[in-house]
Design goal:
13 strands, globular, 375 residues, 12 helices, TIM Barrel, 2 domains, Enolase-like, domain 1, 4-stranded antiparallel sheet
């Protein structure tokens, strides 16, 4: 079997009203998604999605014509490409999807088969007033979520603490609360001053009073020493690494014992193969592995399969913040948007590959451009 072509479809939907992502200074009036299809000469097709894949055409010749099942080789090639160019890990996700289809097995089983489903936490994306967030949390509990994640803006720390306090007061111990400070990486052009170690520690101490499960990205990703200092203080678990540029970056964090929770998103950072290796190392050190998933349902599935395969957790992230961010927006390209089951779980399922079912009519309706790369 050989890779005959790599097809990249760029899609977009308009967001009206816009989505005000806490980590982005600009309101999002448009949601874009790139779908990668790896087509073979034997008729099998693998599907992936995640980052934009912009500029990938210059590197397609490194993959077209080769055996798609040599995933270790392809992952190493993508590591070299990522040093010079973009985050092209959706291609590797498509190759794993194809591998699962060729083997007749779901990817989570090929990656170890430790578990088939995980409890999902609702990952909230906007900054809202404490009273509104308390109402949101009650609604999410009714939907069946056992945990949620709120964002805190570094220049609105007091309001953020009040949000967490309001949620805890409304819910008691019914749900776990996670807090994300979004400081490991920045959006283009965001040069606002970050929290320093002292400021982050004071904020974490206040959040710990409300029994948060972990605090995510309290410092910039380059400050592993600072992360280790915060972790050693023991006020709350420290998480990070969702957009790590290389395996070495998170291996260094592990070596310095800088994090309690490792979160590389397999379609944005490290890929499935690299994240699996990092996860195994972290789990053997008694740390948690629960990846970031904020792309679309295809990206969620890729991360879910890895987390289930290695036995990660204790939770998996599901971007969900109605009415601004819903399954219909996030998964507009899927025939069946992802939803938690009656137990509040996300299941990876028994379908071969990643279990992706595309809505071809929706793709055609929202298609912006298509590239077919043949080397």
């Amino acid at each position: 079997m050989r890779i005959e072509a790599i097809e990249i479809e760029r899609l977009a939907i308009e967001l009206d009203p816009p989505f005000h992502a806490a980590w982005d200074p600009e309101p999002r009036r448009r949601f874009e998604a790139s779908i990668v299809r790896v087509r073979t000469d034997e008729g099998l097709t693998g599907i992936g999605s995640g980052d934009t894949m912009d500029g990938f055409s210059a590197y397609a010749h490194l993959f077209v014509g080769s055996d798609p099942l040599r995933i270790a080789r392809h992952a190493r090639a993508l590591e070299t490409v990522s040093f010079h160019a973009g985050r092209y890990w959706p291609l590797e996700a498509a190759l794993w999807d194809l591998y699962g289809k060729a083997a007749g097995q779901p990817v989570w089983r090929l990656l170890g088969g430790a578990r088939e489903r995980l409890p999902a936490y609702a990952s909230l994306g906007e900054l809202r007033a404490p009273e509104r967030r308390a109402q949101d949390a009650l609604a999410l509990a009714q939907e069946g979520f056992c945990a949620l994640k709120v964002r805190i803006a570094r220049d609105r720390a007091q309001e953020g603490v009040e949000v967490v306090a309001a949620i805890r007061a409304a819910l008691g111990d019914r749900m776990q609360i996670i807090v994300d400070l979004n400081q490991w990486w920045r959006m283009p052009g965001d040069i606002r001053r970050p929290l320093d170690v002292a400021g982050a520690r004071r904020l974490i101490e206040r959040l710990a009073e409300h029994d948060v499960l972990w605090v995510e990205e309290p410092l910039g990703g380059g400050d592993l020493e600072g992360m280790a200092t915060l972790r050693a203080a023991g006020h709350a678990r420290i998480a990070g690494g969702e957009m790590a540029r290389s395996f070495q970056e998170l291996h260094s964090a592990l070596a310095r014992d800088a994090l309690d929770v490792y979160q590389p998103d397999v379609v944005l950072a490290l890929g499935i193969s690299g994240a699996r290796t990092l996860a195994e190392l972290a789990l053997r050190r008694g740390r948690w592995f629960t990846p970031h998933t904020w792309t679309n349902g295809i990206g969620v599935l890729a991360n879910l399969h890895v987390c289930c395969g290695v036995g990660g957790g204790p939770l998996i992230e599901l971007p969900h913040d109605p009415p601004a961010w819903t399954a219909s927006r996030r998964d507009f390209m899927l025939a069946r948007p992802l939803e938690i089951d009656a137990d509040g779980m996300l299941g990876a399922g028994e379908e071969p590959g990643l279990g992706i079912e595309l809505d071809e009519e929706a793709i055609a309706a929202h298609l912006v451009s298509r590239e077919v790369l043949r080397g």
